[in-house]
UniProtKB/TrEMBL annotation:
This is Extracellular serine/threonine protein kinase FAM20C-like. PROSITE patterns: PROKAR_LIPOPROTEIN (PS51257). Its cofactor is Mn(2+). Its main location: Golgi. It holds the Pfam family Fam20C. GO terms for molecular function: ATP binding; metal ion binding; protein serine/threonine kinase activity. One of its GO terms (cellular component) is Golgi apparatus. GO terms for biological process: enamel mineralization. The chain crosses the membrane at residues 7-25.
Length: 575
């Protein structure tokens, strides 16, 4: 009996020793790495031992670099609090975790090598890229329709004089935008353009500021950005090239979206690829259960700019490494736990959301590369509050019920008597948004936003366009109901629509040329481009019917000062 007890004790001791050895084996590489980091930091002198250089930072989400140490080690950077205040975190602190985990140079080289191998191995994608590249080269060599469009007189009207009340920010008088420490005027911002247009913010819009901040500074009562602002092009490049330092899931919404933070403290909303370019929305899908498409977000930004609305924040496509740029830098444990390797040895994840967040609808890379759209954030709500409005022509979002506007043909008469649609340009802005959505086929416009500072006399922000470009074979005429019921449109919009219907400025050709500028080109397949031309003709037919019924001057409201509101005059202006 005693021997048996001694044997059990011996077995237990052997088990404990084995467990201890396994733990030591697991911890040894980490301890060596930490010791190496401490010794290299001590050898640098003058810095805290917890502050790492970019090449030495840990990649685990559990080892975030302390912000205070980073600020001390990098005196050229602005105060962290000042920068983060300028970002729109949607008032959700839990969604705004940031990490400064950086990949090593060798890992980056290996990643780039894998990307090249992936691109070479994918024949179908390679053919699409070759086609896009050839089209881009021909566009550069030949005459640019897009450049000619932006040189057209309709794309050159001047804005009214901007006062301080017309600018979203005035950095010269608002100290909250500056770094707290005096003299910290240098902002880390690679790729800034050399010069910038004059803006009401004055000296504070210098080229030393990051492009995302310069974008915020340029927002005013009439536009998100000016027509020929070089900062927008630089910001689009930043969205593609800036190093991703932190990723977290965006709460709210029905489908998975990620908040990505960059090395220059900018942030963007990432929508991953869910459908191929060729796939259409299944006919049995309701509009509220449709996929959100990354290429629709990209195309919506370009369409908005061609229509000269400039109400969509800048969006760019990017090929993201799911391992190094999402999994290894996220501090969101709920997101991190959803990563897995598929039977095809591809890296996949699904996150948490209302729709399509499960292993059956996982987002998988090839093997770990995934496309997505990155939309630049608007200023933080703490500094630039936005008001959310219910769209008067909001759908019921129900399988059987209909909205009031779907059963009442005189619904617009009621809307016209309701503030803020009873005065100003708000109703006309709704018509702009209606035309914009119809050209994309977007049925999901339940709310819209405006900047609270400007009251009711300002533009509508065209956010969340991911459910556009779902069906090229079908034109959803119910999207145009606001236009058919109200029969109102801005003269500037009407003239530009007529211009885009001409062969010299054909909408599909302009969109094709504009979209070639994106890294993920081609963004839209030919049937979607042709569908926009077809839908544009339908919009003009609706307006023609309205003019015949109510009279041209009652339908087309002149918003172009100094120009007569004549139906015949536009024909000459359109040339």
């Amino acid at each position: 009996m005693i021997l048996f007890r001694k044997f059990r004790v011996l077995i237990l001791m052997v088990f404990l020793v084995a467990c201890t050895m396994h733990i030591m084996i697991d911890l040894l590489p980490k301890l060596e790495k930490r010791a190496a980091g401490s010794s290299s930091s001590a050898g640098g002198g003058g810095g805290c031992s917890c502050a790492h250089t970019p090449g030495e930072e840990p990649r685990s989400w559990a080892k975030q670099r302390p912000r205070a140490a980073a600020a001390a080690a990098e005196p050229g950077w602005p105060n962290k609090h000042s920068l983060r205040l300028l970002q729109d975190f949607s008032n959700e602190p839990n969604s705004n975790l940031t990490s400064h985990s950086l990949e090593k140079v060798t890992e980056r080289a290996e990643s780039e090598k894998r990307v090249r191998q992936l691109q070479l191995g994918s024949e179908e994608r390679g053919l699409m890229r070759d086609t896009a590249s050839g089209q881009k080269q021909r566009a550069v060599q030949g005459s640019s329709r897009l450049k000619a469009l932006y040189e057209h007189p309709l794309y050159k009207p001047d804005l009214p004089h901007l006062s301080e009340d017309d600018s979203l920010f005035n950095l010269n008088s608002d100290v909250r935008f500056y770094p707290k420490a005096a003299g910290q005027q240098e902002w880390h911002n690679e790729g800034n353009v050399e010069e910038e247009e004059d803006s009401p913010a004055g000296e504070a819009t210098g080229e030393s500021y990051p492009n995302w901040l310069r974008f915020h500074i340029g927002i005013n009562r009439y536009e998100l950005y000016s027509r020929h602002n070089p900062v927008i092009g630089a910001l689009l490049k930043d969205l593609v090239s800036q190093k991703i330092t932190s990723v977290a899931m965006k709460s709210g919404g029905t489908q998975l979206k990620l908040i990505m933070s960059f090395q220059n403290y900018g942030q963007a909303l990432f929508k991953p690829m869910k459908q191929t370019r060729e796939q259409e929305t299944p006919p049995d899908f309701f509009y509220f259960s449709d996929f959100e498409r990354h290429n629709a977000e990209i195309a919506a930004f370009h369409l908005d700019r061609i229509l000269d609305f400039r109400r969509v924040p800048p969006v760019a496509g990017r090929l993201v490494n799911m391992t190094q740029e999402i999994r290894d830098v996220t501090r969101d444990k709920k997101l991190w736990r959803t990563f897995f390797v598929s039977p095809a040895n591809n890296i996949c994840f699904y996150g948490e959301c209302s729709y399509y967040c499960s292993t059956e609808h996982a987002l998988c890379g090839k093997p770990d590369q995934i496309e997505g759209s990155l939309a630049a954030f608007l200023p933080d709500l703490a500094l630039a509050k936005r008001k959310t409005w219910r769209n008067p022509w909001r759908r019921s979002y129900h399988k059987r019920k209909k909205a009031e506007w779907e059963v009442d043909p005189d619904y617009c008469d009621e809307v016209k008597q309701t503030p803020p649609y009873d005065r100003g340009t708000r109703l006309l802005d709704i018509m702009d948004m209606t035309i914009f959505d119809f050209l994309m086929g977007n049925m999901d416009r339940h709310h819209y936003e405006t900047f609270e500072k400007f009251g009711n006399e300002t533009f509508i922000i065209h956010l969340d366009n991911g459910r556009g470009f779902g069906k090229h074979s079908h034109d959803e005429m119910s999207i145009l109901v606001p236009l058919t019921q109200c029969c109102r449109v801005k003269r500037s919009t009407y003239l530009r629509l007529q211009l885009l219907a001409k062969e010299d400025f054909k909408l599909s050709s302009l969109m094709e040329e504009s979209l070639l500028q994106d890294q993920l080109a081609p963004i839209l397949i030919r049937p979607h481009l042709e569908a926009m031309d077809r839908r544009l003709r339908l919009v003009l037919k609706v307006l023609a019917d309205c003019a015949e019924k109510e009279g041209f001057l009652s339908v087309v409201e002149n918003d172009l000062e100094g120009q007569p509101s004549s139906h015949h005059h536009q024909a000459h202006r359109g040339r």
